[in-house]
Automatic annotation (TrEMBL):
Residues 169-303 form the Quinate/shikimate 5-dehydrogenase/glutamyl-tRNA reductase domain. This is Glutamyl-tRNA reductase. The keyword Oxidoreductase applies. Gene3D superfamilies: Glutamyl-tRNA reductase, N-terminal domain, NAD(P)-binding Rossmann-like Domain. Substrate binds at T47, C48, N49, R50, S106, E111, P112, Q113, Q117. Homodimer. NADP(+) binds at G186, A187, G188, E189, T190, I191. PANTHER family: GLUTAMYL-TRNA REDUCTASE. Residues 6-153 form the Glutamyl-tRNA reductase N-terminal domain. Pfam families: GlutR_dimer (PF00745), GlutR_N (PF05201), Shikimate_DH (PF01488). Keywords: NADP, Oxidoreductase, Porphyrin biosynthesis.
């Protein structure tokens, strides 16, 4: 069984490509079952910064098939998508999975949200019965490695995240936030973090818009703000100086027309907008409007870079820990390749035991004494169990295969002959 990862991330593909290959929660079950027709085990990780297919397969080279599947699923030409894709196999795949779980491959070094997203991806695969012992073990190993990295290094010591970067950028546009109104679109973990950072920086007023009005109101209440439904977004948009959006919508929520109308009502007072979502929540054309400062998740890189220095030393320590954990997992994986041999040997031994037992029992039923039946059982069982090994050792001895004989001594736990000081057998 081989481990394989095919995907794109923020390092290999711009947001315009990443949004085309993302998977919505609604489409995930069908996609997982579709991949399951190709390989034995799979899970799909889809976030704003990456889309990755994790696979355990008996096939030697399912790489091209998976690339074609990913492109075909999203109606993209394989030749167009292929330059942005990366492939990791076996040890490299294990290393990549562990680095992803630890936040070492994230846009924001060491960010913790990816671990929860990876756990959700495993849960979705498990719920749809498309994963198994190999990927389950890999994911659990990744989770334990991430926990080890977080407890034994300071990689998560400082608040650096996409949410933190978005608020930091807002502070660069508006030197003080006390008089500003922020409109947050969505109600997930990222938007919740944005709200916390805005509140910590003294934001004047917060509105939260979400498809579920109840969720919007509950989240807004944490900041003394107002919750609204998405259908009321255009009505409240003119009040917003800062708009930060992160939803799982497959289509844009804010279009150019709605923003143009809001700007007229605002008398062209500037609006700062950050679209963290992939696919994007705000139409790209909005960036062409005067008085709008629109940033995507890719634009936050420079802000994040300024805050990463404190985490780099911790990241180096974490990378060393990942190397050790990769070795540990690969040892387990190699052992699994030979489990079938062990199972076959035990099954054969059990068949011999049952066969000899049945014959001994037949002797008793035919009037033989218990002692005779036991003698037969012990003698026959010993002969049958030792027969193949004895024949193989005789053949090795006649052919001068000393290496096999030495391995046989180890495997069968036989004592080595005593030798004198010159190495001669005594």
């Amino acid at each position: 069984m081989s481990i394989l990862i095919v995907g794109v991330n923020h390092k290999t593909a711009p947001v315009s490509i990443r949004e085309k290959v993302s998977f919505s929660p609604e489409s995930m079950p069908q996609a997982l079952h579709s991949v399951h027709q190709i390989v034995q085990e799979n899970l799909i990780l889809s976030t704003c910064n990456r889309t990755e297919i994790y696979v355990a397969s008996h096939q030697q080279q399912p790489v091209d098939t998976l690339m074609e599947w990913l492109a075909g699923w999203h109606n993209i030409a394989t030749t167009h998508l292929k330059p942005y894709l990366y492939v990791h196999q076996q040890e490299d795949a294990v290393r990549h999975a562990l680095r992803v779980a630890c936040g070492l491959d994230s846009l924001v070094l060491g960010e913790p949200q990816i671990l929860g997203q990876l756990k959700s991806a495993l849960q979705a695969a498990s719920d749809n019965a498309v994963t198994g012992s190999q990927l389950n073990r890999l994911m659990q190993h990744a989770f334990s490695t991430a926990k080890k990295v977080r407890t034994q290094t300071s990689i998560g010591a400082n608040p650096i995240s996409v949410a933190f970067a978005a608020v930091s950028l807002a502070k660069q546009i508006f030197s003080k936030l006390e008089k500003q109104t922020a409109l947050l679109i969505g109600a997930g973990e990222t938007i919740e973090l944005v709200g916390k950072h805005l509140a910590a920086n003294g934001i004047g007023h917060v509105m939260v818009a979400n498809r579920s009005l109840d969720k919007a109101q509950k989240l807004a209440a944490n900041y003394g703000g107002k919750g609204i439904g998405l259908q009321d977004l255009a009505e409240h948009l003119p009040q917003a100086d800062i708009v930060i959006s992160s939803t799982a919508s497959p289509v844009p929520i804010l279009g150019k027309g709605a923003v143009e109308r809001a700007l007229k009502i605002r008398k062209h007072r500037p609006m700062f907008m950050v679209d963290i979502a992939v696919p994007r929540d705000i139409e790209q054309e909005v960036s062409n409007l005067d008085d709008v400062y629109l940033y995507t998740v890719d634009d936050l890189q420079s802000v994040i870079e300024e805050n990463l220095q404190s985490r780099r030393a911790a990241a180096e320590q974490a990378e060393s820990m990942v190397v050790e954990e990769v070795v540990s997992f690969m040892s387990w994986l190699r052992a699994q390749d030979h489990m079938a041999t062990i199972r076959d040997y035990r099954a054969r031994t059990e068949n011999i035991r049952q066969e000899v037992f049945d014959k001994a029992l037949s002797l008793l039923h035919n009037g033989k004494s218990p002692e005779e039946a036991l003698q037969f059982l012990a003698h026959t069982l010993a002969n049958k169990l030792s027969h193949d090994a004895t024949q193989a050792m005789r053949h090795a001895a006649s052919n001068g295969d000393h290496a096999l004989l030495q391995h046989a001594k180890i495997l069968l736990n036989l004592p080595s002959p005593a030798t004198d000081n010159n190495g001669k057998h005594l």
